[in-house]
Amino acid sequence: MNDYDIVEYPHRPIAHAHPDRFAVVAALYGMQPAPLSTSRVLELGCGSGGNLIPLADLNPEASFFGVDLSDAAIAQGQKRIDALGLCNLRLAQMDVMDFPADAGEFDYIIAHGLFSWVPQPVREKVLDICRRHLAPQGLAYVSYNTYPGCHLRAMWRDMMQFHAAQFDDRQTRIDQARSLIHLVAHGTGQDDAAHRLAQEEDARCAAIPDSGIFHDDLAELWQPFYVREFAGLAAAHGLQFVGEAVFGDMLPVSIDGPAREALAALEQASPIAYQQYLDFFRIRRFRRTLLCRDGQVLRRRPDVDAMRRFHYSAQLERAAVDDPDAPPGSCAFRNRLNDMTVTTGDPAHAAALDRLMAAWPSTLDFAALGDGDASRFCAVLLDCLASSFLNAHLEARCLPRESRERPEIWRVTRLEAALGNTLPSMHLGIVQIEDEAVRRQLARFDGSHTRAELARQCGGAENLASILARAAKSAILAG
Fold first, then answer.
1. How far apart are alpha carbons 233 and 124 in whole angstroms?
2. CATH number where 79 lies
3. Which one of 207, 255, 364, 442 is most buried, by most CB atoms within 10 A?
4. What is the total count of domains within the chain?
5. For residue 71, which of 99, 96, 48, 49 has the smallest C-alpha distance?
């Protein structure tokens, strides 16, 4: 029995580990990634299938394969697969070292939360699997802890592990690890730079589940890398750096002044040196790196014109203009998911964002957003993607905004609600519904009950309307 059998990792989708994100970044740098809807996807360290199960349900023509060392996690995932009747997803309890040589090629390989937490031979095997099993235009996603930021993390880990080692009970060790950091942060009466860093670490520890403390901060194996080191390991296996799964993570977003000037001088010299100095300036702790085959020819800079190929989505709302320098007539839009705000004085751009707001949770293609200066609009969209103000997609998504006479919530969301877990959306984000009564009611929205029947069960038409409106905005309404 391993640690992941003892303390299960949370069953939830990882939005950053969505192949659709990888495909957009790869297309910007000159690749021709496969459409997710017909692709083959492999996840190493898949846990109970929190990523793969929603993807498999949304993409019935695609094929998914997940492996994990934990018997318990695979068993939990298989129960979900059986409940949903998924035929395009297979989970297998397996040591990565035993991955079958005849598994074939995959368009996307995902290794999230694995690389920094396994021994060196397993890390080598992960990269070997990527080399041997990536399709010619395939993409591998590997997340890992990163220096220089993890030098700070190592300090807190050392403290937590020293203190927790005094206790035998697992839960006590987790609780005591948290308590020590809280005591360092708030129990000394000191307010210098080091203790302010401790307060940030205390806030991080308070925000993550017990499994995060157990499998990360208290884990025996924990190996960060400089990005230059990781790129070297990948190159030794015939793989090359493409970018980051979050497009803005590989750009100097929010970095100004002399540091940005220094980065500009490096941009054409060496992509890896550029990323390394970017990590220095950000004191980065974590990366979500995309790799491809070494022979693939990549662009050095993103292809702005590629923005014409994509489909776009964003959960927007109008906001007050708080920029005193904004020209008269400007309007502001806020992304409801991350509070990112954009102010524009261009009526064409404002109209495009209004259309995007009205379309949510469905996507709009480039042509549907506007018909002004296309080149300039591509640059605007690229900036919005870099700041995470909107999402770009390789394929269109058509999701309902209004319910039918017999409303239906996405069946994967209903299943997780019944199990008491985190609720996934059809954009593979997380839906926060804290009201247990509402969560229990979601099971009834299976398309077999009329609105009148549901209204009686939900405490009236007003409550029903509220649930359906929330479901549409959260991208969990199936019809």
1. 8
2. 3.40.50.150
3. 442
4. 4
5. 48
Residue 289 buriedness (CB in 10 A; 0-12 / 13-18 / 19+):
buried
Task: Kindly state the helix (H) or strand (E) to which residue 456 belongs, with its residue range.
Answer: helix 451-457
C-alpha–C-alpha distance, residues 30 and 242, integer Å? 10
Strand (E) or helix (H) holding 392: strand 391-393
Give the domain extent around 95: 3-147+224-293
| Helix (H), strand (E) at residue 16 | none
Return the closest-CA partner of residue 431 out of 441, 417, 415.
Answer: 417
Residue 202, helix vs strand vs coil:
helix
Q: Strand 89-93 relative to strand 106-111: parallel, antiparallel, unpaired?
A: unpaired
How far, in whole angstroms, is CA 147 from its chain's centroid?
A: 21
Give the list of residues 6+ apart from residue 479 with CB closer than 8 angstroms, or none. 400, 403, 404, 407, 408, 447
Residue 385 lies in a domain: yes
Strands 40-44 and 106-111: parallel
Q: How far is CA 260 from CA 56, 273, 274, in A?
A: 41, 14, 11
d(CA 357, CA 314): 7
Q: How much is the pLDDT for 373? A: 84
Take residue 311 and report the two structure tokens written for it.
Answer: 């489909």
Pairing of strands 391-393, 364-365: unpaired
Shared-domain flag, residues 29 and 124: yes
- Name 173's Cβ contacts closer than 8 Å, sequence gap at least 6: 164, 165, 167, 214, 218
Same domain? For 38 and 70 the reply is yes
Tokens of 163: 């203190």
**How does DSSP assign 124-181, residue by residue?**
HHHHHHHHHHEEEEEEEEEEEEBTTHHHHHHHHHHHHHHHHTT--SHHHHHHHHHHHH
Question: Please, which pLDDT band fits residue 428 given cuts at 50, 70 and 90?
Answer: confident
Q: Which of 90-104, 366-380, 420-434 has the highest mean pLDDT?
A: 90-104
Residues sharing a CB contact under 8 Å with residue 431, sequence separation 6 or more, in sequence order: 413, 423, 424, 425, 474, 475, 476
Q: Report yes or no on whether pTM surpasses 0.90.
A: yes
Contact (Cβ atoms closer than 8 angstroms) between residue 336 and residue 360: no
The pLDDT, as a whole number, for residue 5 is 56
Average pLDDT over residues 76-87: 97
Q: How does pLDDT run across 197-211, given as a tens digit for each residue?
A: 999 999 999 998 998
Give the long-range contacts of residues 375-379, CB within 8 A, separation 24 or more: 375/304, 375/305, 377/307, 377/348, 377/349, 377/352, 378/304, 378/305, 378/307, 378/308, 379/304
Both structure tokens of 472: 């549409």
- Does residue 8 sit in the same domain as residue 132? yes
DSSP H helical ranges for 49-102? 52-58, 71-84
Q: How many Å apart are CA 329 and CA 311, to the nearest integer? A: 28
Mean of pLDDT over the chain = 93
> Distance (Å, rounded) from C-alpha 93 to C-alpha 272?
36
